[in-house]
Amino acid sequence: MCHTNIAVTLPAGLWPRILFCASFGSAAAALFSIAISQILLGVAIVAFLVCRPRLALPVWFIPLGLFILWTLISYFAAGDLRTGLPQIRKLYVLALLPLVYVSFRGASDFKALAAVWMIAGSAAALRSCWQFADKWLRAARAGQDFYQSYVADRITGFMSHWMTFSSQMMFVFLAALCLLLWGRLERRLRWLALFTLSVTGAALVLGFTRGVWIAAAAACLFLLARWKPWAMLAFPVLLLGVTLAGPESLRSRIASIARPQGELDSNQHRIVSWTTGMKMIQAHPLLGIGPEQVGRQFDSYVPPTFRRPLPEGFYGHLHNIYLQYSAERGIPATLFILAFLLWPAVLWLRAASKLPAGDPAIWALNFGVAAIIGVLVTGIFEHNLGDSEVLSLTLATLAAAAAAQVKNDAPGSTAV
Q1: Can you tell me the distance from the alpha carbon of 325 to that of 309, in angstroms, rounded to the nearest whole number?
Q2: d(CA 231, CA 234)
Q3: Which of 30, 70, 228, 344 has the highest count of CB atoms within 10 angstroms of its CB?
Q4: Distances from the Cα of 87 to the Cαs of 71, 97, 292, 393, in angstroms?
Q5: Whole-model pTM above 0.85?
Q6: How many CB atoms lie within 10 A of CB 319?
Q7: Cα(139)–Cα(196) distance, rounded to whole angstroms?
Q8: Which helix (H) or strand (E) holds 58?
Q9: Which of 174, 135, 97, 155 is nearest to 364 (CA)?
């Protein structure tokens, strides 16, 4: 029920609808414009304050609250309040979690959001394929080695960085796959999901982002095991076929996981980052060195065993969420964020196993767990939750999956 003791000019009954539309729009816009996403998030916050709906949150929200609290403690303990302020401001994005949870009315709302993600994700994937072709032709005309020119300037879709884009493609790919396996789609949505699976899969491959490759593979294996365990046997065959059918540069990128081509493939750069992060954690295990301090203090923690100049790469963060949060905010912060992600995954695995076949919540819960696997595995290789776009997709997925589990679709829900 909407409380109207706050002076507003709109009819009270309209505010709950604004809350839903703004929350939905913020989650959807994360795929193509973080600015639009955050503006809509602000509208949703205002609508929530006007409506003040009953807020009965799942118990696994608690670790996120503890993470926020520990971040604030670390921020004030570090003492450099001005430098650390951007990370405090970024806590604003976390409001998407309760807003989506409280405004979504069940699995059909989540399916509607997934349909929008598939449309936007397919558009981004098609744009990225055009970007890849353009880069290929440019390298050929210039007589350049394509691998050498491409790895440092890859496809980005509508984003500014390939890592963010590849993580987005993983989310959309997994959503489409879950809908195909458990969504019981009508014909037009089935064709959309198949098309999305094809183009986002191509974008994932052409993105050359190895950490996301590994994460997407792990999530897909989980989904296949949940669907038909024998289907897992076909997965390695599919990967082999894609590898053999792809260009030589794709095989070079795969080989670089074990045999990097000098500094180009960033393996040594990550070793320096991770080792330095461990030094930071050893020195400040409880509260870390403070938000936004990892990049500023990086040089003073680099072990003397590494020769200067350091390998080429970005040293503003540690390219690993576990090391990043531990070094920046302390080991407890990392444990809190892990609990926040793993707790619902365990609950949803149990819940999905008990639901009758055809229950609309099954696809949502399986997608929620697959997304968590993707985020956690990608986080080994990159500070993926540091991207507001990826963080927004993660929060929206967790909240929508939770709503699908505990809520029945109300009349007028936006079922697709």
Answers
A1: 26
A2: 5
A3: 30
A4: 9, 17, 7, 18
A5: yes
A6: 26
A7: 28
A8: none
A9: 174
Per-residue pLDDT tens over the stretch 109-142: 999 999 999 999 999 999 999 999 999 999 999 9
Instruction: Taking the CA atoms of 230, 232, 238 and 240 in sequence, report the sign of the dihedral they define.
Output: negative
Residue type for 238, please?
Answer: L
Average pLDDT on 266-293 reads 94
Instruction: Give the span between the Cα atoms of 246 and 181, in whole angstroms.
Output: 27
385/241: higher pLDDT: 385
Cα separation, 182 vs 370, in Å, equals 13
Check residue 51 and give its pLDDT: 86
d(CA 303, CA 202): 40
**344, 349, 353, 356: CA torsion to nearest 10:** 40
Q: Which sign does the torsion angle of CA 382, 385, 391, 394 carry?
A: positive
Output the CA–CA distances (angstroms, integers) from residue 165 to 37, 154, 265, 330, 415, in the order listed. Answer: 16, 10, 18, 29, 28
Contact residues for 315 (Cβ-Cβ < 8 A; gap 6+): 272, 273, 295, 298
Joined together, the tokens standing for residue 357 give 């076949």
Name the token pair of 31. 């795929």
